[in-house]
Amino acid sequence: MPELQSTSAAWGVVVQDGLVRWQLSVIPVWVVVAIGALLIGLLSPPQHYLTWLPIALAGGTFITFCVQLALVQKEGLVDRVMASLGGSVIILVIATAILAPLA
Predict the structure, then answer these.
(1) Interatomic CA distance for residues 55 and 88, integer angstroms
(2) Which of 15, 55, 74, 81 is the most interior residue, by most CB within 10 Å?
(3) In terms of Cα–Cα distance, which of 88, 71, 70, 94 is closest to 32?
(4) How far apart are CA 87 and CA 23, in angstroms?
(5) Dihedral angle sign, alpha carbons of residues 62, 76, 91, 42
(6) Which residues contact 65 (CB under 8 A, 6 or more apart)?
(7) Cα(46)–Cα(65) distance, rounded to whole angstroms?
């Protein structure tokens, strides 16, 4: 069986077994969404928490697709998109559970 290797033109990284693709495409989206939730909690007035959290999810969705298009890899696209968006939803559910009682 041939070894799975490919080069991502956008990142200039040799990808093996999808691990680097995962690190470059899924985890950064989670970090951006978590930072967005934190900023919403810190900077937004409490009555607007539940207005801004869905906007953070929309931003995470947009970033997910931008990153996936930049990777130029078809293999595992659906898995990476589902992991990015699923993790974003979980992060925002936790943020909502913390911020909603304060609103």
Answers:
(1) 12
(2) 15
(3) 88
(4) 13
(5) negative
(6) 81
(7) 30
pTM of the shown model: 0.78
- HSE value, Cβ hemisphere, 13 Å, CA-based, for 98: 13
Task: For residue 38, give the DSSP letter.
Answer: H
Long-range Cβ pairs for the range 48-56 (8 Å, 24+): 49/96, 49/99, 49/100, 49/102, 49/103, 50/96, 50/99, 50/100, 50/103, 53/92, 53/95, 53/96, 53/99, 56/92, 56/95
State how far the alpha carbon of 99 is from the alpha carbons of 41, 56, 62, 103, in Å. 7, 14, 23, 7
Each residue of 43-101: pLDDT tens digit? 999 999 999 999 999 999 999 999 988 887 788 889 999 999 999 999 999 999 999 99
Phi, then psi, of 14 in degrees rounded to 5:
-80, 125
What is the distance between the alpha carbons of residues 83 and 62, in angstroms, rounded to a whole number? 14
